[in-house]
Amino acid sequence: MFDAASLLTDLAYGPHARQRLDVxxxxxxxxxxxxxxxHGGGFIRGDKRDRANVGAWGAAQGFVTxxxxxxxxxxxxxxSGAEDVVAVWQFVREHATGWGGSPARIVLxxxxxxxxxxxxxxxxxxxxxxxxxxxxxALLSGPYNAGLEAQAANALGIPSPDIRxxxxxxxxxxxxxxxxxxxxxxxxxxxxxxAAAERDxxxxxxxxxxxxxxxxxxQGYAPELHWWRGHDHFTPGASLGSDDSTVGGPxxxxxxxxxxx
Length: 261
Fold this sequence. Notes:
Elements: E1 7-12, E2 20-24, E3 32-38, H1 52-60, E4 64-68, H2 80-95, E5 101-111, H3 113-123, E6 136-140, H4 148-151, H5 153-156, H6 163-169, H7 181-184, E7 192-199, H8 202-218, E8 224-232, H9 235-239, H10 248-260
Parallel strand pairs: 3-4, 3-5, 5-6, 6-7, 7-8
Antiparallel strand pairs: 1-2, 2-4
Helix pairs in contact: 2-3
């Protein structure tokens, strides 16, 4: 169970005002799985407070649950998001035991832009310190190919230039490949869940499929793949803690499974 007395807010994991996180601690746990969640917002907006339901949901599952903010574009561009994910991981690893969690059982989850940041941090070893270790990661409706949306804007039905992606990845198309996770995967396989929604933005469905296909055919991964029926781009995270278990059921099962390994 979780109560308000078990909530720690605005802990600083770095010097920037956006480098803050909240911790939802279940009562009476020791060595519990630690779920770390990164919100969406198109790289230019969003806040951990918008996903407080995820913190309460995770704690109700018995997970020490961390909601993290990160620096935003255009003031902070690629690869600031991946760097912040790693900084959060380092902070959580150092403090997890004191919160009742296990530093060896950390699962990173991101939605939308947060999924892009988690993907880069976990699939590209350039960002990972020597002690890097996670139990798994879940990517919910994120962009993983920096150039795809601009190069297929008409087919995907999106404006170009995209004020969100360009704000983070930049406008120089010659640099997009090095910022595209699908082109830069060099991390060995680990437990991974990739998801998009039935009513998602078309580009997110395409990007989830591309990442899944490349990881399976080129990198030796065996990710879980989920298509959230009845959901759009914004509702999967919002549904956690509600009566709709479409998303919460598989996510909780994934966390339990990879943390039991």
